[in-house]
Fold:
Amino acid sequence: MELTAREYHIAEEVVRGFSEKEIADRLHISPSTVHNHTYNIRKKWNARSAVDIARKFILKLENPNSSSRQLPCLSCNCTLFSIARCSICEGPEEQPIEHIISL
Structure:
């Protein structure tokens, strides 16, 4: 079952390791709204935890090792970020997606 645009965005934030409260703060929405979205994601994807959501999200990417999959930078929110380092602000380094997959 496909996710809504908002659920997909929430799933991206889960992949980055943010808690429901942190996601709510980042998106300026209620923590209970985030909880409802993550509940719906778990139901649709038959996931039991945030780890399951992250795993299934990564597996659903067409080519997880491709740098063409861009997510907004955590520091400056530009879109020149691909789960590594922002090329504009040199924002915080996160674990590259290749490392997540190889775990």
Observations:
- The first helix runs from residue 5 to 15.
- Confidence is low (pLDDT under 50) at residues 79-90, 92-103.
- The two ends are 26 Å apart (CA to CA).
